[in-house]
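# step 3/5: fold
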Amino acid sequence: MDLFLPLRWLTASMLSMVVVVTLLQIVLRYLFNAPLIWSEEFVRFVTVWMTFIGAVVVCYDGRHLNVDVFLQKAPAPLKRALHWFNAILSFGFLAILGWTSITLVKIDMMNELSALPLTLGHLRLAVTVGSFLMIAAILLRVFYKRAPEYYASKSSPSQSPSQDME
């Protein structure tokens, strides 16, 4: 069961919105000489949020910060140790990033965007929300996807990276 399927669909939807709005802006600007005022800010806003939500999914899949060549060649005990080291290091970095971004969000809630009825804080909120969701994804990956029998069943070299618990 994929716990992060809704976030996968949300990321895909956001990418579709970016493509549609960008193409619409190109058509309106160059064919009709009537550009959209809000499109650049909207695309930037959606792209930032899409990046951090997509990073949550990638964290859950265990596809961040890996050099697969070394992991595939490593013996099982070293592989387990590297996975734990990666999870602990990522957890610490994301905790610091998420905690310190709260201050920036509070400060930037006073800075309004020029074309959208939002503030810069709403844009920076993606870092805070994304960091804490990535922490949750890492914890779920470590405790939900990983079981004692996991490494015993993953001994074949033909496994895909999404199946491997990184």
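# step 4/5: annotate
Residues 10 and 32 are 31 Å apart (CA to CA).
# step 5/5: archive (pending)
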